[in-house]
Fold each of these.
Amino acid sequence: MRLSVNLNKIALLRNARGNNYPSVEDFAYEAISLGVHGLTLHPRQDSRHATCNDAIELSSICKKNSLEFNLEGNPFSLPKDDFIGFYELCDITKPEQITLVPDSIDQITSDCGWSPGYEENKLKNFLTKIKHLDSRISLFINPEIESVEFAANLGLDRIEIYTGPFANSIQSTNIKEIKTTISLIITRARELGLGVNAGHDLNLQNLPHLIDCGEIDEVSIGHAIIIDALKYGFHDTIIKYINTITRN
């Protein structure tokens, strides 16, 4: 399992004061120095946190350090104000991985994934447009077998399992059921030749439960890392996450 650190929340803190402090780039370099496997950004049309310029800068930093840059976003997000458009941003940054997320403009966070048939024709057209980038394409899906089949039929490289329901179930009686579902999703994805990522509400407490479910290639974590950094510091927090995913 690999760790990709989402730096959106660093950008959110920076934007609260209207200057470049804290610097997204500085935290990117520190994360890289600590051994993370990749960096993630999810710019949105309203530029509430990460901006297109942030994505361009982090893409450059990752390339210089032979590290994966994972660009997340809605493939249908068009240019608006300072947002240059998701396709245009992909074309400029040429990220190692592009994760397609069906979030709306006013959605606070990516709290749902792709389901079979949703905007299928538009999605196929987008995939045709970005084929020349040679990026790995991952589809952020709801935790259901049907969505795995949908991703495979589109010819994608990976899925990212939306782990919100999993995270919410850790203290509930249906945790075994949710873990079984994720295990089945992982198994089916492997059968279909898909890589498997996971993300949303993952933290130090629930990661071991996720690891129990099967072989996952990569987790993308941002919010929990920043929350934990308030307690442990950014340096120690990153080390804790790396140790958690590598010792299991």
Amino acid sequence: MATVVPRPAPTLDREKTLAGKRYSLIVGFDEVGRGSLAGPAMVGAAALLSRDIDEWTVPTGVADSKMLTEVRRQSLLEPLKTWSAAWAVGSVSAREIDEWGIVYALGVAAVRALNEIETLLTTGDHTDLGVGAAVAKAVSRQGISPAWHGTIGDIGGEEPGVRLKADELRVAGILDGPSDYITPVVNSFDAPELLKPIAMTTVVKGDRQCASVAAAAVIAKVTRDHLIEDLAAAHPEYEAYGWSSNKGYGSVPHRAAIAKHGPTEYHRTTWHLC
């Protein structure tokens, strides 16, 4: 019988290195829904305050979200939100993806998430696009509109309210993957203006190596899954597309339904759908 070698757990090594470079806020990013045929793409962000570095610990059970079962991801959601100083999931609609292309759209989603985190930590309030988890749940249950591109986020930890002064912000980000699609979008017309710029680092398989990225991945994955499940429940007329099980991705039944019934207003119509 082959020996199964346990996969190393994510660490906080890169986050601590960035904190040592005098960044006051370290933010891990990961995406979900890039390859989906329907529904929004989303980028999760999980932030840590460098001043709390002596209290940082790797959350128990955190790992690459793709290696976790659905039940395990769900059980980690609330602990990871609490572990983060603040968290957010930015989104872009299928319409925006069709207009901008997926890479630029993901950058906009990431900046929306970061803007929410910066605003929450420095003012205690949400951005114009932002809502807390409780409000988002109510909106989600009604079924999001095709043009919805909101940001879901909240302050984590145990200290509500303002956590940083704006002039204390010095932000570093860690993005899963080989390419930085966030920096080119900062200061663009389509993305919100950040309170402070961000210095980005990319890490291939970052969700396996960096705890903040792994946390962002789980938060984003569970958030989007719930959103798509609620969308399917709110639109029984679209049952044939199977969104409750495929989460908008290109399963064989999903593609067959598109071929038979055509795309809905939630599909990315510039993509090869069937």
